[in-house]
Known about the structure:
Chain A is built from ten helices and eleven strands. Chain A is an alpha/beta fold. In chain A, the strands form three sheets. In chain A, strands 5-2-1-6-7-9-10 form a seven-stranded mixed beta sheet, sandwiched between helices. A two-stranded antiparallel sheet of chain A has the order 3-4. Chain A is globular and about 50 Å long. Mean pLDDT of chain A is 87; it is low at 275-279. The N and C termini of chain B lie far apart (69 Å). In chain B, 57% of the residues lie in helices and 4% in strands. In chain B, helix 3 (53-66) runs antiparallel to helix 14 (386-408). By secondary structure, chain B is mostly helical. Chain B has a three-stranded antiparallel beta sheet with strand order 2-1-7. A two-stranded antiparallel ribbon of chain B has the order 3-4. A two-stranded antiparallel ribbon of chain B has the order 5-6. Chain A binds chain B through residues 44-45, 47-49, 161, 166-174, 195-200, 247, 249-257, 260, 263-265, 267-268, 271-272, and chain B through 40, 42-46, 48, 291, 295, 298, 340-341, 343-345, 347-348, 351, 403, 406-407, 411-418.
Amino acid sequence: MRIVVLGASVYSETSCAIAAHLAKQGHAPVGALVLSTLNRGTLLRKLGQWGPREVARYARTKLAPGKNSESTEVNNPYLGTMLAHENQFFRSLREIGSVYGFPIVTCRDQNSTASISQLKRWAPDLIIFTGGNILRKQLLDVPRLGVLNIHLGLLPETRGMSSPEWSLLNRVPVGITIHYMDAGIDTGPILQRFELPDVNRSKSLSDLRHRLIAFGIEKAGEVIAGLDQGTIAATPQASLHFIANQDSQFFVMHERLRARAAERLASAHQASPVTMVNG
Amino acid sequence: MTGRITRALTETTGLLRRPQRTVPLVRKIVSDKLRVTFEQRHLYSYTTTKRASGDALNSLVRWILDAQRPDGGIAAYYSLLTGYSQSYPEVTGYIVPTLYDFVRAAGHGEEHEVVTAAERATCWLLTLQSSTGSFPGGVQGVTTQPSVFNTGQILHGLVRAAAETNRPQILEVAALAADWLIEVQQADGSWSGPVAYQNTAHTYYSMVAWAMAELSEHADDHAGQRYRQTAEKNLNWVLPHFRKSGWVDGINLHGHPTYLHFIAYVLQGVLECAILLRRNDAVEMVEKSAWVLLRKFETNKYLAGAYSPDFKDNLRFTCLTGNAQMSCVWLRFYEVTGDLRYLNAALKMNEMLKQLIPVRGPRGIAGGVSGSYPAWGRYQAFRYISWGCKFLADALLLEQRLLQGIETSEYEALACAS
């Protein structure tokens, strides 16, 4: 199966983990198309998501590896196994590409004509989206099977942003959905959805997100294997009406509500007798 | 057109008479220009401010108290060009419930002053009623023409003042106003003709229906039924104006764009009326519109100052009052449905509005809510408006009350807990 990884940055830990995990499973990508790191849009988005201090820390770690202790660790500890390579961690897609022999192409806009032409040259069966722009139809139509996304919530119940936090607050199961992307937000056909076991083991919201990302990548590997063998098919969300007339899209959660979700998780964690297990 | 020219001349003359007003005017223009130029809005962001809601609330109420004129009425606005306007009966009426709500909310130290302001405002309103029961439109002294909308808005204040003070005289005045509203209501449930703005029926007069429904809760059985029927009749006239897209027809502001303020009026009026009359069909209608606007706010991080039918186009400015009203609508929907997305949107909206309240400045500016953001937008340009302060104060009071509920509720086990 010809797979292309679409990412927000060559240094994205999630993109690296997906590419490395698939390569180790024998599904090495045929290429990766990522936004250039100094892209203004990416920078602003990250500033909004993380804040200036975290962006500066990230830049230090990624742009000057080996010069500080953080370079010997991974931001998401649950991705350690996937990123591990010869007693070190993969730090960028370039490193993975050089080991597994696939090219990395950077662009300023994933929907641009040049990007689409590049993707067509790779003739992918499947594109795996790990971040970047809002994808236009022209790009979505390139791969034979579709563009795959790992959504950190159970679809169709929890679409949109801050999904793990909304799941906690609304007392619905926390999990991930692997689905094809379409023109809507998390509305494309579902390949498979998985509830995260032992949610109570998560110490914090960021720990929960880290676990979900790792869980999602692991499950994506299984789904891709299933697609390759023809044992998995997608189900349109329209056939999964779970609440009549209700829009299940969620938006970025306000810090007051986020604090409430964190509190709820912390209480559950404290009440849980199970000790934390990495992986 | 003549009206606009007259207004422009008056405002310019105001600046010539008091040239020292140039400083805050220029400061406002520069600060809004800088903010508009450098603010970053993207999907993951929302505006935040360190200013606590309680602090913002105090400053809004201080602005309202400062705007109270010697006659007891509240000025319509403070213009950066001409200063305070005359007292405005309509707004004075519906600011009264806000003042009492503020007093009732825990932790404020200005209760006595605020109660006095509410009582002075009520006393002034009582002097304005005509023998027919109606109240005049416009700002004080401009016209004596009876106005349905102003009478309805004043009714909100009278009903609340009667409940707070137990003065039967206030309730009698309210009943007389309500009887006049019944008398001039059309057979189809609308209010139109010379007692309506631009002689036309308007769906945003649902705010009047809400006042009637409120009064019905305080009246005896017979009168209460008449008031309820009037409210229901208007509600039944308004509801067919809701489109599938959530848009509401019949706002009918000839010569003006359909400002968000008026769209929000329709939604608030219908929603509150529907809650009081237990009309779930009407609540559902409003929810569609409220959700469309919520999605727009969450995606764009602001709501436009005006919209064209089906919310397709919009003008590039924000009507802060309309935003505050939508925050109130969303908070009420959270209360009614328990859907936290409404609370979430309102919290973010309130953050955005709080950071636009001037912390410092002379009387009339500090603590005020400008008509438009940026200040030169089409809605009440270069003015801090009293109804903007009223609706934002309402939104912050609601936010405080509802957050108390969510932050003190006991922990319940996770549905997904293993």
